[in-house]
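Lab meeting, action items carried over

1. Structure of the two-component assembly. Owner: GW. Status: complete.
Input record:
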Amino acid sequence: MRPRWKGKGAEAKALADPMSEIVSQLQSSLLQSNACALLSGCSVLLAVETEQTELLTRACFGKPIITAEKDKQWFQLGLEEAFYLCYSLKCLKIAGEDNFVKNDVDLWLYMKLKKEKFPDFYKAYSHLRMKNWVLRPGLQYGVDFVAYRHHPSLVHSEYAVIVLSEEGDAGRLRVWSDFHCTIRLCGSVAKTLLMLNVDKNGHGAISPSCLERYSVEECTITRWSPEQSRDDQKASENGAK
Amino acid sequence: MRPRWKGKGAEAKALADPMSEIVSQLQSSLLQSNACALLSGCSVLLAVETEQTELLTRACFGKPIITAEKDKQWFQLGLEEAFYLCYSLKCLKIAGEDNFVKNDVDLWLYMKLKKEKFPDFYKAYSHLRMKNWVLRPGLQYGVDFVAYRHHPSLVHSEYAVIVLSEEGDAGRLRVWSDFHCTIRLCGSVAKTLLMLNVDKNGHGAISPSCLERYSVEECTITRWSPEQSRDDQKASENGAK
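Predicted assembly:
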């Protein structure tokens, strides 16, 4: 399936304005302002100025919250988003409810406590973000994330991402009914199902340093029709398949 | 992945000589000669004249066996191949070791006895054969079948086929290691992994008439690389991905 750009010129616009560039602008801007966010349950709150508001929006981190404050814009970041800015991009500090800045390990433990699968989810999130894929929550499609080639205002999400780990059979896609239900759903919303299997390679999750030892196996799953593949031979050779 | 034709002109040759046509020639020829094969353990032996030798070869059923007989050519058919000619194409009779022609139900029971997963394998085999895919045993790739767009002399096999059924967890691809091993193997031999999940929909396998009630869900699984999908954007749009 090809990327579905939103209207004419969207692709050119995306190519001219690479996500890697936008993210590094955001990174240096947050560094300069010595930005600090606040833990708040399962999300992280960050107050920024106009310039950073624009950068956070263009880089697609978090969502703005309407407040009474005129001079500041608040953003609500998901756990993976916040930890990515803090631990991977090193451009955000995060303070706990006690207003003291947490170190990486404490932050990791806090997030693990709030979200059991956080280590796997974070590995998957950072794995794709580092490759400049834009990730948003996949809740409305019943998956873990949706992945965009560029900003959602320019392109539809291409992949419905499910994060799998070896741990037990509690996970997704263990039974065929779930499997096919998910594949069909993805097809109906023109997304490809992308499975990221996070393998901890025997390393635990006691600290974020374990992340380097995790590996990620990716595969896409697509419904297949015997007729289509034969009749449209030409079409399929042109990549329309 | 596109079909990999064997040398120039192979594709044109295949298009000019559709498999459906070849198979129906074989069908009428076997009907005319009132062909009868013999059960022999896990395979079925068929003796044919020169014309049918050529048709069986072109339609890619069974493999020729060298014998001392000058006037006849013997073919060794797999269980699915033989049952397809007998039950689905109705152009072959099959006699048991007692030399009496077996009816469909007895034949079905015999084959089930020889091969526990025969009902699922046959459903998968016939499902693809009816769509004019050519199937050969997949043993050498550690899969159930390999599927060709046309005769193996013209094109490389495109799909490595694994047949899955709901029954128990004894089946393939239940653990990630097996899953990834299979996907990687398929990649290394330039085949796409095609999973056919045969659902008996609660109907047993007491007689071949159950086959009509079975349904088949197909999906392909492909390894995915985050870089490739982004960097080669153009290439992937041309279907090279």
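2. GW to write a short summary for the group page. Key points so far: Residues 158 and 192 of chain B are 6 Å apart (CA to CA). The radius of gyration of chain B is 19 Å.
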